[in-house]
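Predicting holo structure, flavin mononucleotide bound.
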Amino acid sequence: MSEKPKQLLIVAHAPSENTVRLRDAVVAGARHPDISGVAVSVRNPFETEAEHVLAADGIILGTTENLGYMSGALKDFFDRIYYPCLEEKQGLAYALYIRAGHDGTGTRRGVETIVTGLRWRAVQEPLVCRGDFQARFVEDCEMLGMAMAAGLEAGIF
Ligand SMILES: Cc1cc2nc3c(=O)[nH]c(=O)nc-3n(C[C@H](O)[C@H](O)[C@H](O)COP(=O)(O)O)c2cc1C
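Done. Tokens:
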């Protein structure tokens, strides 16, 4: 009898061509053909509700850095899901990638403060795609998605 697939939720703000490439690379990595047993869903933060988080076994967060902080879209997501998920999802495995034109530290700090409050568990070092856009960012995002899905499949997370 096959096991129930693990649920991987990707919540990504992708307001530009480059950030769409990053999001799509995370999704492609997570849906790598060698990985089975993981159901991947990808959502815009504004369209992600607490019920989607409650159903997730792992979550990947993606945001731009705007004015020294995470995107308003990702902040809005956290504002809406925080209390409905606080008691239920402690220990949730998460990974984070940030697209920042020149910095990224304020965004990392902001997200980490919130997920510390939620007691989510980082399973990878945050990926900060900083500076002029590079093809390497796309590869790094693909690896991030793949590693998350592979870890869920293996039951490591
Ligand atoms: C209004 C605005 C504010 C921004 N503020 C920052 C910032 O504080 N730190 C930073 O590293 N990049 C900042 N950026 C750059 C964005 O992070 C970057 O343009 C975005 O991630 C999209 O990436 P792309 O330009 O490669 O498509 C800002 C961009 C805009 C439009």
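The two ends are 22 Å apart (CA to CA).
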